[in-house]
Amino acid sequence: MKLILAPMEGLTDPIMRDVLTQVGSFDWCVTEFIRVTNSVLPDHVYYNYCPELKTDGKTASGTPVHVQFLGNDANMLAANAERAVSLGAPAIDLNFGCPAKTVNKHKGGAVLLDEPEVIHTLVKAVRDAVSAHIPVSAKMRLGYLDENHTLENAHAIEDAGANWLTVHARTKADGYTPPAYWEKIHPIQDALKINVIANGEIWNYQHAIDCRKQSGCHDLMLGRGAVTTPDLTQCILQQSHKALLTWSELITLQIQFLTGPSKTELAMVGRYKQWLGMMSKAYPEAQDLWQVVKRIKSVDEMIIHLKQHLQ
Questions:
Q1: Apex 305 CA angle, 263 and 284, nearest 5
Q2: Domain 3-237 falls in which CATH fold?
Q3: Which of 22, 188, 254, 286: disulfide with 280, CB 3.0–4.6 Å?
Q4: Mean pLDDT highest for which of 137-151, 243-257, 275-289?
Q5: How many degrees, rounded to 5, is the angle at CA 27 between CA 214 and CA 247?
Q6: Residues 155, 156, 161, CA angle at the centre, nearest 5°?
Q7: Is 64 helix (H, G, I), strand (E, B) or coil?
Q8: Segment 19-64, tens digit of pLDDT
């Protein structure tokens, strides 16, 4: 079974990837999407989204990082994919699942699921642009507003030469509201020859079991569940129904997170509070800590409070 860390805009940035791949057994992870419009992006953009390009395309713990693109211009997607590979990207992924209104308004992400022929063109352009040994994959939802083109889109991606397909088991209209319809991935798994990876609402070991059974997929992509329970991969692999990391061990990771690079101190504190809020779903200690640090705006002060919890 392969376990993959999902690309989540504003959440699984390089700092979070570094922390989560340090404690989790991920087979690979995927960057937040890089938006492609009408030009080949300068190198610093790639390094901003994927600093791991400077370290053989891997996180500090050795987990490969695949570069994800979002766009609708076949030539530009192909050119940017080629450039990313030249900089060290081990694989390219294409985003056909983002539900954001701004992205969809500019004909990117999930809105393209109403045009399977366009999806085929985009995937094929990227597949033709990069060397055969570089995997090209795609991530899609079940559909945009409905599921009328689900299998058509899946076949379009396969026929274009993708190495595998990840399916988020909801439509754009479903957003992120539970449940995820894992059973609706099963017909895709049955219809395709390439590997299909299931994604959506996998928060614990039991969810992983249920998702694999209902979807028919062997491999899983973990999103918010992996951020909420940083050792979720270990829980799945060791068949544990509860988190294995102690709160003290997790405090050490939080301090590491806070000392990572960030554009501004306020942004770092905000990112940390976002993570702490998510962890409160799995750790009661996080709820207590939140009450103490919710008004703090300084990284140093935040770290002082965290160290007190180590004692």
A1: 100
A2: TIM Barrel (3.20.20)
A3: 286
A4: 137-151
A5: 90
A6: 95
A7: strand
A8: 999 998 999 999 999 999 999 999 999 999 999 999 999 999 999 9
Residue of 257, 262, 266 whose CA lies nearest to 295: 266
- Examine the pLDDT at 311 and tell me if it is beyond 70: no
State the residue for tokens 């965290």: 306
Contact 220, 198 (CB under 8 A): yes
Binding site, annotated residues for FMN: 68, 139, 168, 199-201, 223-224
Share of the chain above pLDDT 70, in %: 100
What pTM did the predictor assign? 0.96
Are the C-beta atoms of residues 26 and 225 closer than 8 Å to each other? no
What is the DSSP secondary structure assignment for residue 106, as one 8-state letter?
T
> Binding site, residues?
68, 139, 168, 199-201, 223-224
- Active-site residue flag, 50: no
Dihedral sign of CA atoms 285, 32, 59, 165 in order: positive
CATH architecture of 247-310: Up-down Bundle (1.20)
**What is the 8-class DSSP label of residue 175?**
T
Q: What is the mean pLDDT of residues 91-97?
A: 98
Q: Enumerate the domain spans of the chain.
A: 3-237, 247-310
Q: Within a 10 A sphere around the Cβ of 156, how many other Cβ atoms?
A: 25
In 3-state terms the chain splits into helix, strand, coil percentages (rounded to 5) of 50, 15, 35
CB 114, CB 156: distance < 8 Å: no
Given 50, 98, 217, 235, the catalytic residue: 98
C-alpha 130, offset from chain centre: 22
